[in-house]
Amino acid sequence: MNASLGYRPSYTWRSLLAGRDLLDMGLYKSIGDGKTTMVWKDSWILSVKRGELVPLNEEAKIITSVCELLDADGRTWNQQVLDTCFDRITVEKILCIPLNKTHLPDRWAWKGGSNGNFLVKSGYKLAMRESWENMNLTPDLFCDVPTSLWKSVWKLPILSRYKVMFWRACLGIIPTIYELERRGMVINEPCVMCEEKPESAFHLLFECQEVQNVWGMTRFDFSSWTYHNSLLEWMTVEWDRWGREKQCVFVMTIYFIWEARNQRKFVNEVVNLNGVWAKVERRWDEACVAGVRAKGALAGLFRDSEGVIHGAFMASAPALNDSMLVKALAIKKGVEVARQMGVLDLVVESDSRLVIDMLNSNYKICKAARHVTGEQIWQDSLPICINDVCTENFH
């Protein structure tokens, strides 16, 4: 750590020394027997940097190694010696340092890792920490954004793409015309939806006359946007007052408005914004049925020989780690619904080759199961027909 750059150093040596300051910030001595750790020169107290430890008096400077601060057996700290060398706060910090009972030698450890090992990820975080602390993503906001806002957003029981889009819209990092021009691009185009006013994120999502009809169709009151100048400011004030369903619907609506905007701009589609709210309601119903947090979803379609859809079904399923089992349950549910609809001739299609192969299996027990109505469970003893089939299959 004290090596010099030297005369005409190589690129490798320059690179190593360039990271020395970072290592100095994150490295510390993990105390074993305390013999190789210098009290006043090394970093061995996590919250005290190397060279910042100050002796309580001149006599304390006589102590050089950490082993001199331990009892004779080296298993505990010597409270009396600590009190004569350090102030009360420092003594309390030292007493919190666990000692190695097997008298292993001291070793270098890394502050950023829970086990003391260095990771590039933890090194990067340590190097960028000061920059991140001084970074303000919302310089024009008149109030502080609580961390609880983002935690609440990421915990919403909806798909991640909706939440990421909402987060980007709050921070103004979606590529609206205003944001692109602010970053140096020359576009000179108005809002894609109304073709009148400049297209900022807040205008596109709320102020635009074309979009206001969407918010007017919702079953929740979102009219308070008129009292704010930005989405993040609005959310900072009102987000915690909303219920979970209102929050989810709001986030999904923003996503589908942005999706409609992109379809009109890049695909040149004629977009009907009146269908946005119906799409949001449908996605929310799917999320409720699926139970995003703890359940899976089953769904299927019924088509005739010409491909015309005559019906569909959707149902929740237990949380299962086996995707094949979920698809088998979906087929089972589809057969049950088809029977209720009076379908006599049914062809099953699925993207799971394994499940289809099992349905077409030559095992007699599988063939017998196709003709069973409802569920049949035997625990104590098997019927003779099932016992014969099992015996034949496995011999």
UniProtKB/TrEMBL annotation:
* Residue ranges of domain Reverse transcriptase zinc-binding in the record: 120-215
Which segments constitute the RNase H type-1 domain? 291-364
Spell out the Pfam families in the cross-references: RVT_3 (PF13456), zf-RVT (PF13966)
Give GO MF terms, alphabetically: nucleic acid binding; RNA-DNA hybrid ribonuclease activity
Matching entries from PANTHER family are given as:
OS05G0353850 PROTEIN, POLYNUCLEOTIDYL TRANSFERASE, RIBONUCLEASE H-LIKE SUPERFAMILY PROTEIN
Know the name of this protein?
Ribonuclease H
State the species of origin: Senna tora
